[in-house]
Amino acid sequence: MPKLTAKSATLLVLAALIAVTPFFFPSGYYYRIGALIFVNGLAVTGIVILTGYAGQISLGHAGFAGIGGYACALAPTHLGLHPSLAVVLGAVISGVLAYLVGRPILRLKGYYLAVATLGFGILVSMVLNNERRLTGGPDGIAVPELGLRGLLKDWGLDLTNGEFWYFFCGLVLLIGAWIALNLHQSPSGRALRALHGSEIAAGTVGIDVARVKLQAFVISAVYASVAGSLVALQNKFITPDVAGFMHSIEMVTMAVLGGAGSVLGAIFGAGILTLLPQALTVFAEYEQLVLGLVMMLVMIFLREGLLPSILRKLRGRGE
Amino acid sequence: MTLLSVEGLGIAFGGIKAVHDVSFKVEPGEIVSVIGPNGAGKTTLFNMISGVYQPGSGRVVLEGEDVTGMAPFRLAQRGMSRTFQNLQIFQNMTVLENAISGFHLQEKGPVLADLLHLPSSRRRARAADAGARKLLARVGLERAADREAGNLSYGSLKRLEIARALAMKPKVLLLDEPAAGCNAVETEEIDHLIAEVAASGTAILLVEHDMKMVMRISSHIVVLDHGEKIAEGAPAEVSRNPAVIAAYLGTEEGADADG
Ligand SMILES: Nc1ncnc2c1ncn2[C@@H]1O[C@H](COP(=O)(O)OP(=O)(O)O)[C@@H](O)[C@H]1O
Ligand SMILES: [Mg+2]
């Protein structure tokens, strides 16, 4: 058997899962959940770069998702941009904002980034809630149709709305994972992981620690922004909840639960945390309680995250 | 022009002078050893020279440029590299990746090329990979290349740090107790390696407790006691110096007892 690199193995597993899972869907509704998992997986892949590679924590990444989402709502109506270009505009704005927020903060050592991003997230959320004339306030705002499904239909590929978004988000997730995996083995990614291992040693080998942290922060902000855009376009509607504090926490939790150090692990975490609340509805009002308990147990007993821990156990048994 | 010139360097922690008014010079290809009892201030001196600590007083001049308190990554760009007494290994990486990290300044490039896995990015990474494997062979770690760095023995990690520092082809290399925790054979190997590196023109600033090694390979020796320079000179001179003998005999921990 030819030797599989970790990168191609991850991409193959991911592509296979995306392609095969629909055969087991009991109803069309599950395409929606699948697409949601992929979008969450995309945002969490950005967290892998920031937290898993570089060891930095952001508690405000939902703010970037909000910017990506509202770019798709506002840019087509106010600027006449096609929704696909609105995604790009949102990503650019998110990247620039991440640069401006991150630049002064990432020079400092310690947990300032967590605190500053917390403030940033709250700020975005407040603006979206309060600027009613522009954003529609807490009730949200309509988002125009992306239009790609119609195009595909003209080309002879007729997908239901659910199917289209499932495969489209799956494809974007694959691209996002490919980029994150490229980074992992590249000089830039090595610099990120080096500073995670030892900031002092990283400086000693010539890594401009503040600069590469900023790179990771900007890249991960773009991931969150694109994820926010996809949610908005799929739902054709968006509310400020997408930028809310809970959503920021959710992203970090998904990454850490699944295994922040590995792209596949983090996507796995996104899957679990997207599905679990659906499964836990049987616990009715205790749902949140059970969810919290599960996460605590994982963190206590499977410190590296679910997937890496499971793989390690399996490998250990194989030997 | 002098390669590295340390001029009246000093620092105090909470009013206690850890290093006070220390000066010396290092020329290309020299091995300058800094010795002194435990707690004399050797590591603190290294930390000031390499930009980890901001000196309270004095200057560090590298090739005529005042680099006092400059961030370590800028010093690295100017050709200064170091290892650490208490090991600063990237535990989250493999042995090979640790060595490759030493090539950062040579392998870094546009982040976009890295994200998209462009040929230019692959070329940079491949060159660093090849260089790192060569260095690992030089310190006897080639067979451990794919192991998690955290799983290596202490002596191996010491050599890995040296390999990482050498990857930068530094003009000045600061080694803080490179042979500590190594057995006699490993110490001998490190000894040879240091001499080899110096012979290729790299200046070496060395802290080492193995006096036989220090006496054998040093061009000259700076002796610290209680943060102050009490002697400086060729190995033979220093070992006869009464103040040096008194400093060593006067402390409970002998020179070889440091950890
Ligand atoms: N960051 C620090 N804060 C307070 N004291 C320090 C610090 N670094 C070093 N010292 C003190 O400086 C003195 C010299 O320590 P050090 O340079 O490690 O000695 P050596 O390397 O010669 O054994 C010691 O008394 C030590 O406790
Ligand atoms: Mg010391």
Mean pLDDT of chain A: 91
How many helix segments of chain B?
11
What spatial order of strands do you see in the largest sheet of chain A? Answer: 1-2
Bound molecules: adenosine-5'-diphosphate, magnesium ion
**Distance separating the two termini of chain B:** 36 Å
Number of domains of chain B: 2
Structural class per helix/strand content of chain A?
mainly alpha
Mean pLDDT metric of chain B: 92
| Beta fraction of chain A | under 5%
User: Which CATH first-tier class of the largest domain in chain B would you pick?
Assistant: Alpha Beta
Largest interchain contact: A-B, 28 and 39 residues
Q: Give, in order, the helices and strands of chain B.
A: EEEHEEHEHHHHHEHEHEEHH
- Dominant shape of chain B: globular
Spans where pLDDT lies below 50 across 5 or more residues of chain A: none
Number of domains of chain A: 1
The major sheet of chain A is characterized as: 2 strands, antiparallel
Structural features, described:
The complex is a heterodimer of chains A (319) and B (259). Helices cover 75% and strands 1% of the residues of chain A. Chain A is mostly helical and 319 residues long. Chain A has one domain (6-252). In chain A, 50% of the residues are buried. The mean pLDDT of chain A is 91. Chain B is α/β, with parallel strands linked by helices and 259 residues long. In chain B, strand 9 (220-225) and strand 10 (228-233) form a beta hairpin. Chain B has helices at residues 42-49, 72-77, 95-101, 104-107, 111-115, 119-138, 154-166, 184-199, 211-217, 235-240, 242-250; strands spanning 4-13, 16-26, 31-35, 57-62, 65-66, 80-82, 172-176, 203-207, 220-225, 228-233. Chains A and B meet through helix 8, helix 9, helix 10 and helix 11 of A and helix 2, helix 3, helix 4, helix 5 and helix 6 of B. The complex binds adenosine-5'-diphosphate (ADP) and magnesium ion (MG). The site of magnesium ion (MG) has 3 residues of chain B, from helix 1. Adenosine-5'-diphosphate (ADP) is lined by residues 13, 18, 36, 38-44 of chain B.
